[in-house]
Design a protein that fits this description.
mainly alpha; Growth Hormone, Chain: A; MFS transporter; MFS; membrane; transmembrane transporter activity; transmembrane helix
Length: 384
């Protein structure tokens, strides 16, 4: 039977998995300089992540049911440690692409089963509470990694900052803790190939998170290079922290709203916050960058992430694992592909044109998605 602290231990493990994902973010410019490459190459290396995520979310939807939930979390932790070791042993832009492939595989494994596993450990029928725990723990990890590396870099430039060693230590602790967790649902002899599932009414939430995480991906991968033009490179890790972790502050508010209402509010905030953030980056206004990042975080990791994941799991019925895979598939496509195209535009036409083009597409996408979600705004709130 699940123990009382089992959900907290799983949340710690999920945080360690996602902490590794953006651990190297403040060093992206350094890796690019070492390789003699520009924004487009950096974006391609950054997007190696999606090559790892796609096989898991597209083709291995039945893996969790076949082998159990716990082995996938342990595998994800191991992959995060391998990625960090690679960056310690051979720091370069090429290694970054390989490391992010491993990180994508690990995060895909964790994302596909985390909400279902959390629900089982809580032994509760309310999937919203499990989704809240998953979104909080993963959001914390995504932003904390970049902030930790920035803090260690304040002591001086380094290709092997202490944050890398810290992640290895904490992830090893998480492996030991998860190893002792129960796996309430027994392994089943189901089909390994189970495609992502989009229950009726869920696609709009998927497109909302795609737009939200596209904005986050741009901040993580391309903003450091733009900030360097104004001598603000040291703040790139903190901008990543702000655009991810500050969303946690808004999750209590999101829980009191209907899922569609929360996602709609996020879609209103997202283009406005991006406009402030992009103007600040282009003009070298650090306060505007950080305020825009905080506002964007409220949309990306507060209202849209929490509202969307909870709604999808409520709509999914008994297919929570496949529905979560479908939701995160769109999220990670947004996290990677738009960043590549924006990086190419930045190299060929300049950062200002790239920021404007991304903003125009973001605004159009938000308007279309909001129109699809608007009729559902009076659904049951996330928190019962």
């Amino acid at each position: 039977m699940p123990t009382r602290n089992a959900p907290a231990l799983l949340a710690f493990a999920l945080c360690m998995i996602t902490l590794a994902v953006n651990l190297q973010a403040p060093l992206y410019i350094t890796y690019a300089d070492l390789s003699g490459r520009g924004a487009a190459a950096t974006a391609v290396a950054f997007s190696g992540y999606v090559l790892g995520v796609l096989p898991v979310l597209l083709a291995l939807g039945g893996l969790a049911d076949r082998v159990g939930r716990r082995p996938l979390i342990i595998a994800a932790l191991a992959l995060s440690m391998i990625a960090t070791l690679l960056m310690l042993l051979a720091p370069s832009l090429q290694t970054l692409g390989i490391a992010r492939l491993f990180l994508g595989l690990g995060t895909g494994l964790a994302s596909a089963t985390a909400t279902a596993y959390m629900s089982e450990l809580m032994a509760a029928s309310d999937s919203s509470r499990a989704a809240n725990w998953v979104t909080a723990s993963t959001s914390l990890g995504f932003g904390l990694g970049a902030a930790l590396t920035s803090l260690f870099l304040l002591n001086g430039p380094s290709l092997t900052p202490g944050s890398f060693h810290l992640q290895l230590l904490l992830a090893a602790v998480a492996v030991v803790l998860v190893w002792r967790l129960p796996d309430p649902r027994p392994a089943q002899r189901g089909a390994m190939l189970r495609l992502p599932y989009y229950p009726a009414g869920s696609l709009a939430y998927g497109f909302a998170i795609l737009l939200a995480w596209a904005c986050v991906g741009l901040v993580i991968a391309l903003l450091p290079g733009i900030l360097r033009q104004h001598g603000l490179s040291a703040w790139s890790g903190f901008s990543t922290f702000c655009v991810i972790n500050c969303g946690l502050l808004f999750q209590p508010m999101a829980r009191r709203m209907a899922s569609a209402q929360a996602a709609l509010l996020g879609l209103v905030i997202l283009p406005c916050s991006y406009a402030l953030l992009a103007w600040g980056a282009d003009s070298g206004q650090l306060v505007a960058v950080l305020l825009g990042a905080v506002a964007a975080s409220s949309a990306c990791y507060g209202f849209i992430y929490l509202g969307g994941l909870a709604a999808v799991n409520q709509l999914a019925g008994t297919e929570k694992t496949r529905a979560s895979a479908g939701f995160f598939l769109l999220a990670y496509l947004g996290f990677s592909l738009p960043v590549i195209f924006t990086g190419l535009l930045s190299d060929y036409l300049g950062s200002r044109v790239a920021l404007l083009a991304f903003g125009a597409v973001l605004l159009g996408g938000c308007l279309i998605t909001a129109a699809a979600l608007y009729p559902r705004r009076r659904a049951v709130p996330l928190a019962n």
